[in-house]
Automatic annotation (TrEMBL):
Gene3D superfamilies: lambda repressor-like DNA-binding domains (1.10.260.40). It holds the Pfam family HTH_3. Residues 43-97 form the HTH cro/C1-type domain. This is Helix-turn-helix domain-containing protein. SMART domains: HTH_XRE. GO terms for molecular function: DNA binding. It comes from Paenibacillus mangrovi.
């Protein structure tokens, strides 16, 4: 028979168990990736700009969610069959979505200070440059901050996003330097639209 002290201890543990363990263990469904964990920023940018979750893409293509996560977070390139499916579904060629140079050398972009992506960028008017808009979402950058850091007018940057305007070569070079992604990928929406 338990002593008075042991009985009190057992009752205390019983109350603790009912209070905490009875509710179940809370685990976040998705990890919030840091910028250095995203190897394929272009693929994630296109998905974010089109409001497609990784699980939705996996379901649409008939592959596992783990595979899609590996494409985005680990920079893996899918097999020929799945590569064709992804490119057809999203409407971009494979050298844009799965560019080996971009996934292997995926650096953190050089943003001088913290910023915050503004949702009204998407809601104000239709977005024609999905990749550039998605990259702002991936890195949580506001239009005004990016334009200030790149030394361009905010209205000019908005034209790139909303009207799909192809900037001059010098502005393309500035964008390439800032985002550290080749300009033919950054402005692929404009180039593909024109051709």
């Amino acid at each position: 028979m338990p002593t008075q002290q042991e009985q009190h201890s057992i009752q205390a543990w019983s109350l603790i168990n009912r209070k905490y363990l009875g509710k179940g263990i809370r685990v976040k469904r998705f990890r919030k990736p840091s910028r250095c964990q995203i190897r394929n920023r272009v693929l994630l940018a296109v998905l974010m700009a089109n409001d497609i979750k990784l699980s939705q893409l996996a379901e649409e293509l008939g592959v596992s969610s783990r595979s899609v996560s590996a494409w985005v977070y680990e920079g893996r390139i899918p097999g020929k069959k799945n590569l064709d499916k992804v490119c057809q579904f999203l409407g971009y060629p494979h050298h844009i979505l799965f560019n080996r140079a971009v996934t292997v050398n995926s650096p953190i972009i050089c943003q001088p200070s913290s910023s915050r992506f503004m949702r009204r960028t998407l809601t104000r008017s239709p977005v024609d440059n999905k990749i550039l808009t998605g990259l702002c979402m991936v890195h949580d950058l506001s239009v005004s901050d990016v334009s200030e850091w790149m030394h361009i007018h905010p209205g000019t940057f908005r034209k790139w996003l909303h009207q799909g305007t192809l900037p001059s070569p010098s502005f393309q070079d500035r964008a390439e330097l800032f985002f550290r992604i080749p300009k033919f990928i950054l402005f692929a929406d404009c180039i593909l639209h024109d051709s």
